[in-house]
């Protein structure tokens, strides 16, 4: 089984602001909150922490960046980090804000590519808001794969493993596990979430699933629940016959397999 590890960068580099963070103080430990109060520390900027963890396991994953954030900041605020990610082997994908038209998708793709200095080949739509009939637009815009599909939010669903190939060749990797869904819809916690994920991945592997996709938001890496990411990776790398990969790696693996091998 290959597990596609991904992160959506939903917030601008400056984060949501101190008032927003302190209003949600139950999400963080006291040491983090002290840094927020005393140093104006932004705990939502989790990219450096994710990288430190993944380097421990010699892992490279995929980060999806929005071209424009809710406060109108452009992805340029992440330019240095995006270039460092690419230089050191991580993949940068597009977190699409507006997937309603080819023009909007192409415009957003070009915005990120101008910052990254390279083609962007993978995508995930923000809030997973894309209708089935809009999927061909992604391929027309030049994307090779998408990961915006999920069949169930509140439980493990075997349909969220593997991959699909559209008629035009676009490869779709359904989201098997998303941190936000695990801690909300599935009502899991730090004590049982890893056991839940690993157990279901083992069952999926036994059922013949060759791929699984995990979405772990960078802004959650210091939050209760999200901070178990390191422990999760430790368990995943210990699984038999499992490899952790980027989205583009999953694409190449999927398209080199015989038809129907998912």
Structure commentary:
This protein is an alpha/beta fold and 262 residues long. The chain has one domain (2-10, 45-256): Alpha-Beta Barrel (TIM Barrel). It contains ten helices and ten strands. It has helices at residues 18-22, 30-39, 47-56, 79-87, 102-116, 135-140, 179-183, 193-206, 229-238, 247-256; strands spanning 2-9, 62-65, 91-96, 122-125, 145-146, 164-165, 171-172, 177-178, 211-215, 243-245. Strands 1, 2, 3, 4, 5, 6, 7, 8, 9 and 10 form a ten-stranded mixed beta sheet that branches. Strand 4 (122-125), helix 6 and strand 5 form a beta-alpha-beta unit. The longest helix is centred in the middle third of the chain and has 15 residues, at 102-116. Mean pLDDT is 96; it is low at 258-262.
Give keywords.
disordered C terminus; 262 residues; alpha/beta; 10 strands; TIM Barrel
What's the CATH architecture? Answer: Alpha-Beta Barrel
- SSE pattern: EHHHEHEHEHEEEEHHEHEH
Number of domains: 1
**Counting H and I runs of at least 4 residues, what is the number of helices?**
10
Strand content: 5-15%
Distance between the termini: 10 Å
Radius of gyration: 18 Å
- How confident overall, as mean pLDDT? 96
